[in-house]
Amino acid sequence: MLGLAPRKLHPKVPRFHGEGGKYRLTAAGGLAALSLDALTSVVYGPEAIVLALVAAGVSATSATLPIALVIAGLLGVLVISYRQVIAVHPNGGGSYAVAKEDLGRRTSLLAAASLVVDYILTVAVSLAAGAASLASAFPALGDHLLAVCLTGLAVLTAVNLRGIADSARVLMAPMALFAAGVLAVVVVGLFRSHPVAVVGTAQTFHISEAFGVLLLLKAFSAGCTALTGIEAIANAVPMFREPRVRRAQHTEVLLGVLLATMVLGLVLLIRRHHVVPREGVTIVAQLAAGAFGTGWVYYAFTLITTLALALAANTSFGSLPVLMSLLAKDNRLPHLFSLRAERPVHRFGVVALALVACVLLVAVDAQLHRLLPLFAIGVFVGFTISQIGLVRYWKTRRPDGWVPRVAVSAFGAALTAVAGVVLLTTKFVSGAWFVALVVPLCMLLFSRIEHYYTSVTNALNRRRTLRPPVPVPTTVIVPLGEVDEIAERALTAACSLASDVVVVTAQDEQQKAEAMREKWARWNPGVRLDVISSPEHTLVRPLMAYVERAVGDGKHVAVLIPQVEPQHRRYRVLENQRGLLLAGLLSTRGQVIVCLLPVRVGPADLVSE
Amino acid sequence: MLGLAPRKLHPKVPRFHGEGGKYRLTAAGGLAALSLDALTSVVYGPEAIVLALVAAGVSATSATLPIALVIAGLLGVLVISYRQVIAVHPNGGGSYAVAKEDLGRRTSLLAAASLVVDYILTVAVSLAAGAASLASAFPALGDHLLAVCLTGLAVLTAVNLRGIADSARVLMAPMALFAAGVLAVVVVGLFRSHPVAVVGTAQTFHISEAFGVLLLLKAFSAGCTALTGIEAIANAVPMFREPRVRRAQHTEVLLGVLLATMVLGLVLLIRRHHVVPREGVTIVAQLAAGAFGTGWVYYAFTLITTLALALAANTSFGSLPVLMSLLAKDNRLPHLFSLRAERPVHRFGVVALALVACVLLVAVDAQLHRLLPLFAIGVFVGFTISQIGLVRYWKTRRPDGWVPRVAVSAFGAALTAVAGVVLLTTKFVSGAWFVALVVPLCMLLFSRIEHYYTSVTNALNRRRTLRPPVPVPTTVIVPLGEVDEIAERALTAACSLASDVVVVTAQDEQQKAEAMREKWARWNPGVRLDVISSPEHTLVRPLMAYVERAVGDGKHVAVLIPQVEPQHRRYRVLENQRGLLLAGLLSTRGQVIVCLLPVRVGPADLVSE
User: Fold this and answer.
1) How far apart are the first and last CA of chain A?
2) In CATH, which of 3.40.50.300, 1.20.1740.10, 3.10.20.30, 1.10.10.10 is domain B27-451?
C-alpha cells in the first residue's frame, strides 16, 4: 500500500524481578535479587525497638536485647516454616497461591490485599528510611526529607517506566557491600570500648509511658518490621536454577542467618555503646560513626545504606506487577494486567504504585516513624496464612512423618498470628487502623471485579446456540474538517467499506462553512456533504448529535475518522486528538462502529501515492 | 438497534474564568474575578523588600519606604498605560495579542512563553505564600510547608478537574474580606504606638552585603513581585459588561489605587513598628498580630489571607487554558487545546499545570523566598511588550493627540524594560537564570509546533486536484478470544462491511487453542479461523505480526475489534484494554483501518436481542 518499511514490532520487553533471572538464580544470586527488602529492614527494625522503649526513659532501652532475641527466635521459626512452603509450593506465588490452593477464596483475597498493601508500604518505608540515612550524612537535607523522598521516587518511576533489566548481577554488589558494611560496623564497633565519634544532637526524653508488658509488646511489634521481606524467596522459587527447591531453601536459611546476625549484632552494639536516639541521625548511622568515626568510611557507609534502601524500594516495582498478573488471571484485577509482558501495559502499574506511594509520603511528610506502624502487619498476615495453609496441606496429604511438620507449621502460625494481633492492637491508634481499613476495601474491590467478570461471561454465554452472521446495510459517516488529501483517502476507504457514505463537517464560523461547501462542489466526489454550524467552541458534540440522529433513524452506522499519522512519533500528540475524542464518546454510545483511518503524512508517503 | 435510551449528550461544560462571567462583569465584579492574583501579591511583595534590605543589616530596612514609593510610581505608570491597552485592544488577549498584532511573530512568541511561565509560577508562589501564612497562625505546620502546599495543590487540581463554575460572585467575598483585612491591619496598626503582640522567634542577621546601589536595586526588583497580576484585567476585557472598555479601565484604576494603598500602608506600618523578618511567621502576619494581638481576629486574618492566596493560585487554572486555546488556534500548541470547551480536554491542561507546579514546589521545597526570584520577570516582559506595541500602534495610526500617548507608553516601556533588566540581572544567580532558560525553550517549542502544522498543511494541499474516491476490495480481520455473543456480533458487523472476513485468535496455551477450534467448528459461521499460539504472556504482538503479514501480501486490511461496553461507566476500565492496545499499535502502522465495535453487555441489552 504505502511503500514504507514496516515498523520494528518486537521492542525489547523489560524484564521484571519476576522474570529477570528466570531459571538462573544461584543461592547467592537469589539472596541478591530477592532479599534486599528483608536485609535493609535492619536499618529501621532495631531503631524502632529503641524508639518504642525510650518512651519509658533511657533506662528502659536495656530491654532492647531480650526483645531482639525474641524476634530472632520468631525469625528462626519462620525460616523453618518457609523452607517447607518452598518444598510444598515449588511454583512460588507466596501466601496468595498457598491460600488459593489450600484455604479458599476469602483467605486468598485477604492474602492478596495484604501483599498489595505491603508492596506499596515497602516503597514508602524504604524511601523514607533512605532519606533519613542520607540526611544523617548530610544534615542539610534534614529539613527536606520529603523533597528527597519524592526525588528518589521520581527517579525509580522513570527507570521503571523505561523498563528495568535488573538481573541478580546488578543487585549483587550493593547487597554485598551493604551486608559487609553492617557486619563491619558490628565487628569493629564491638572492639571499641566506647564510640569513636558521636553524631547528631542530643534529645531530652520525658517519660510518657510506664515500663511494663504493654511497652514491651509495643517494642516487640515495632521490632517486627525487621522481619519484613523474608517471604520474598518463597514467592519466587521458579526463578532459581535447578535443583530449584533445594537452592531456594538454602537461600532462605542464608537470609535468616544473615538477618539474625545483623539484627543481634546491631542490638549488642547499641547496648555496648549505650546508644539512644539523637536528633537528625539514624541509630545505624550513630553506630557507624561510633565504629569508624566520621571520616570517608562513614559517608561511604551511609551512601551504601541509602543505595540499598533505594533498591529495596525498587523491588516492589518489580514484584507488584507479578502479583497483579496473577490476580488478573483470576479475574480479580482488570485483565489488562495479566499481560504484563506487553510493553505499554506495565507502565500503568508503575505509575499507579508511584502515585499511591507519593500520596503516602506526602501524608506522613516522609517521617519514617509515622510509616512504620502501618508496616509489617500485612507481612504477618501473609506469614500466618501461608503456615495455616501448610498445616491444612499436611493434614490432607498425610505423608510419612507429617506430624512434626504440622507441629512446626502450627506453632509458627500461632506465633505469627499472635504477633499479628499484637502488632495490630499496639499500633492501632498510631496508624495500623489505616491498614485495617484499606485491606478489607481491597478485598471488596477484588471480589467486586471478580463478580463483574463472571456476570459478563454468564451474560455472553446465556444462549446455547449462536446465529450465523447476516450482513446488514451500513451507513458510513465521515467527519471532515477540510477538503484535502485526507478527505480523498477517507472517502476512498469509506466507499470501500460501504455503498452508503455521508460526509459531515462542523464549523464554528459561517465563512469557513461556505468555503468548505465551495471546495466540495469544486471537487465533486459524488458524496453528500452535511455542514453543521456550532456556535460554541466545540466541534465534537455537534458531530455526536448528528450521529445520534442517524442512529435514531434506525440506521446501522459506522463513523470513519481519518487520523493523520506523522512520520515522527514525537509529533503524534499534535494530531488526531479531536478524532480520538469523538471516537471515545462514540464508543460509549454502544451502537456505532468507530473506524480509525490512519493517514501517513510526509514527503515519502505523498510521493508513493 | 438496541432499545436503550440515548445517553445525555451535553454534560454541563465547566465555565472558566475566561468564560464564566462572559459579558457580565461590573467594575467591582471584575476586581473580584481578575485581581486576586494582583492584590494577594502584597503578602510577599513588601516582605521581599525587607528581606533583601536586611542583608545589609537591620538599619538598612529604613530604605523600604522609598523603594515602595518607586514601585508605587511604576504602578501608576503601568495603570495609565494599561488603560490605553484596554482602549486599543477591546478584545483582550493581553501582551500576546498585542505583540501578534503590532510587533510580529517572534515578539508574540516571547510574550506567550513569558505568560505561560508566569501562570505556572503564580500557582507555585501563591501556594507557597499561602502555606507560609497558614504556618504563621499554626506554627506546627512550619516543618511541613511542602506537604501543606502539595495538599492545597491536590485540592485545586481536583476542583478544576471536576470543572469549576466560579463566577465573580464566588470570589467577591474572599477578595473583599482580604482587602478589608489588610486595610484594617494598616489603619489599626498605624494608630498603635507599638505592636500589641509579637509573634515568631527573633532572628540574628549577620551583614552579608554592603548598603549601596546594588542592594537597593535588588530590593527594588524583589518588591516588583507586588506588581504581578495587574495585567489580568487588560487580558479579559471581553468579560466586562458594556460599555466594556470604560468598565475595564475603571477596574484597572481601582486595582491600581487599592494595590498602591495596601503596599504603601503595609510599608508605613513596617517602618512605624520597626518590623524585621522573624522565624516562622510572615511579615504581614507580624503586622496583623501587632495591630490586633493574637486573638481570634489574628487567626481569622491569616485564614482569610491563606484562602485568598489559594484562590489566586486557582486563577491560573482558569487563565492558562484561555491562553493555550489562543496559541492552539495560531498553530503554536496542539490543536486539541483550541477546543477548551470540550469536556475532557481541559483536563489535560489542568493536570499538566498541576504536575509542573508540583515539580517546582518540590524542587524549592515550598520555600517562598526561593521561588520569588523566578517570579515577576515574565510579567515585566509582558509589560514592556504591550507598551512597545502601544507605541507602534499610535505611531502607525497617528490619531489626534497621539504624541502624548506615545510619550506615556514609551516612558512606561522604557521603565518596565529597565526594571526587567534589573530583575533579570540582580536575581539571575538566585534563580532568574531558570526563567532565562525556560522561556526561550518554550518559544522554540511553539515555533517547532507551528512549523510542523504548516508543513503538514502544505503536504496535504500539494496536489491541485483531488481524485474521486474509488472503492478497493478490503479484507476485514477480526481478532477474537472466545466463541460467544461478542463473536456473533463482531462477525455480523464484519460481514456488513466487507465480503472477505477472517477471524484470528491468539492463545498462550495449547488446550485453549484446541477448545477454541472445537467451538468454532460447532458454531460453523462460514468464516475462516486462524489460531496463533503465543508462548510468551503477550497476545497483542502476535496479532500485530499476523496483520503485518496480511498487509505484506498487499491486501487492504481493516481490523475489527469488538469492545465490551459495560452498562456502568465505572466498569469500563475492566474491559477492552487489550483491544485498545492493539488499536493503538495498529494505528501507528499507518496502513490498517481499525474498526472498534462496541458491544453492550447487560441484561437489558441481551433481552433486546
Assistant:
1) 9
2) 1.20.1740.10
Burial class (CB in 10 A: 0-12, 13-18, 19+), A10: exposed
Q: What is the β-pairing status of strands A593-601 and B593-601?
A: antiparallel
Instruction: Quote the CA–CA distance of B345 and B367 in Å, as a whole number.
Output: 32
CB B16 within 8 A of CB B318: yes
Give residues 524 to 583 of A whose Cβ lies within 8 Å of B: 524-527, 536-541, 544-545, 548, 551-552, 554, 556, 558, 560, 563-566, 569, 571-575, 577-578, 581, 583
Contact between residue A602 and residue A571 where contact means Cβ atoms under 8 Å apart = no
Which residues in chain A are contacts of B571 at CB distance < 8 A? 452
Location of each CATH 1.20.1740.10 domain in chain A: 27-451
Q: Reduced to 3 DSSP states, what percent helix, strand and coil does chain A have, rounded to the nearest 5?
A: 70, 10, 25
As beta bridge partners, residue A476 has: A501, A558
Q: Tell me, what DSSP letter sits at residue B331? A: T
3-state secondary structure of A601: strand
Collect all residues of chain A within an 8 Å Cβ-Cβ radius of residue B527. Answer: 469
- A524 alpha-carbon distance from chain centroid: 57
| Phi–psi pair at A561, nearest 5 degrees | -110, 110
Q: Which positions ≥6 away from B395 have C-beta within 8 Å?
A: B402, B406
Taking CA atoms, what residue in B is nearest to A331?
A: B574
> Which residues in A lie closer than 8 A to residue B466 (C-beta atoms)?
483-485, 487-488, 523, 525
Residue B397's contacts (CB-CB under 8 Å, 6 or more residues apart) are none
> For cell 492545597, what's the residue?
B152
CB atoms within 10 A of CB B414: 14
Point out the residue among B147, B461, B539 whose CB comes nearest to the CB of A484: B461
User: Residue A359, exposed/middle/buried by CB under 10 A (0-12, 13-18, 19+)?
Assistant: middle
User: Which residues of chain A are modeled with pLDDT < 70?
Assistant: 1-23, 93, 163-168, 339-346, 535-538, 569-578, 590, 602-609
Mutate which: B141, B322, B362, vs A, most A CBs within 10 A = B362
Q: What share of chain B in percent tops pLDDT 90?
A: 28
Q: Which of A460, A465, A527, A606 to mutate to test the interface with B (most CBs of B within 10 A)?
A: A460
Q: What is the pLDDT of residues B16-71, one digit of tens each?
A: 334 443 447 788 888 887 888 899 999 999 999 999 999 888 888 889 999 999 99
The closest CB to that of B538, out of A150, A342, A573, belongs to A342
Q: Which burial class, exposed, middle or buried, applies to A526 when counting CB atoms under 10 A from its CB (0-12, 13-18, 19+)?
A: exposed
Judged by CB atoms closer than 8 Å, whether chains meet at B469 and A523 is answered as: no
Residue A606: its chain B contacts at CB < 8 A? 459, 462
Please, where in chain B does CATH 3.40.50.620 lie? 474-605
- Residue A570: is it exposed, middle or buried by C-beta count within 10 angstroms (0-12/13-18/19+)? exposed
Q: Is the ipTM of this complex over 0.85?
A: no
Strand partners, B15: B165
Q: How far is B588 from chain A (nearest CA, A)?
A: 7
User: A474-605, superfamily in CATH?
Assistant: HUPs (3.40.50.620)
Give the residue among B186, B368, B376, B205 at the shortest CA–CA distance from B284.
Answer: B186
As given in the structure block, the three cell numbers for residue A337 are 494486567
Closest CA to B5 of A551, A485, A186, A169: A551
- pTM, entire model: 0.73
B597 CB within 8 Å of a chain A CB: yes
Is B588's CB within 8 Å of A578's CB? no
Instruction: Give residue A345's pLDDT.
Output: 56
Q: Please give the pLDDT value at position B602.
A: 60
